[in-house]
Amino acid sequence: EAQVTQNPRYLITVTGKKLTVTCSQNMNHEYMSWYRQDPGLGLRQIYYSMNVEVTDKGDVPEGYKVSRKEKRNFPLILESPSPNQTSLYFCASTLRGGLSEAFFGQGTRLTVV
Amino acid sequence: GQQLNQSPQSMFIQEGEDVSMNCTSSSIFNTWLWYKQDPGEGPVLLIALYKAGELTSNGRLTAQFGITRKDSFLNISASIPSDVGIYFCAGRLQGAQKLVFGQGTRLTINP
């Protein structure tokens, strides 16, 4: 089954404790991206990757890092989480370099206390 | 920053009513996508539009790519309880690869 898988689904952590949210897709898509969803703001892009070893900042990249060592995986790293990073996070993948529909994971709800 | 204006932000309707929502922008888009998000889940693609003026249906859903390429609308006919959720429009700016999302329309249906 074609899917985008995120882990964990829920995470509560403390300020400053490094964390990683994993994302994996099995559709051989080139383009992957991370979004955060906050009430009234819709989905805002954090980082994206057009292919292996190619990543770039989205609209709200501050406080986040990503890596793309393999085509299928695109982890999101918070080196020193802060409460304003409490949000619902989605990973998405797209087939043709971003020029077709995006498929989303089920989301990771992160709370930073 | 946000370049799409989606309206309305929320809707409260009776079961069986038709629903209409839209997205507008001052910029030109070459793709419009409509997604639905159920509670606790990721957005799922409903309809994709690639040409100005294109009108596409998916069951009770109909979406159109505005002729000016700056807007799109989604209609849902004869709403049912499972239509509840948040609907997002997303567009791809001319010459760009990334998607820009609207703020979402939260649909609530009274049985």
Question: What does it look like?
Answer:
The complex is a heterodimer of chains A (113) and B (111). Helix content of chain A is 0%, strand content 51%. Chain A contains no helices and eleven strands. In chain A, strands 2, 4, 5, 6, 9, 10 and 11 form a seven-stranded mixed beta sheet that branches. A four-stranded antiparallel beta sheet of chain A has the order 1-3-8-7, with no helix packed on it. In chain A, β4 and β5 (42-51) form a beta hairpin. Chain B is built from no helices and eleven strands. Chain B has strands at residues 5-7, 10-14, 19-24, 29-37, 44-49, 55-58, 61-65, 71-76, 85-93, 99-101, 105-110. In chain B, the strands form two sheets. In chain B, strands 2, 4, 5, 9, 10 and 11 form a six-stranded mixed beta sheet that branches. A five-stranded antiparallel beta sheet of chain B has the order 1-3-8-7-6, with no helix packed on it. Chain B is globular and about 45 Å long. The interface between A and B is medium-sized, with 27 and 25 residues.
SSE order and pairing:
The complex is a heterodimer of chains A (about 110) and B (about 110).
Chain A: E1 4-7, E2 10-13, E3 19-25, E4 31-38, E5 42-51, E6 54-57, E7 65-66, E8 76-78, E9 87-94, E10 102-104, E11 108-112
Parallel strand pairs in A: 2-11
Antiparallel strand pairs in A: 1-3, 3-8, 4-5, 4-9, 5-6, 7-8, 9-10, 9-11
Chain B: E1 5-7, E2 10-14, E3 19-24, E4 29-37, E5 44-49, E6 55-58, E7 61-65, E8 71-76, E9 85-93, E10 99-101, E11 105-110
Parallel strand pairs in B: 2-11
Antiparallel strand pairs in B: 1-3, 3-8, 4-5, 4-9, 6-7, 7-8, 9-10, 9-11
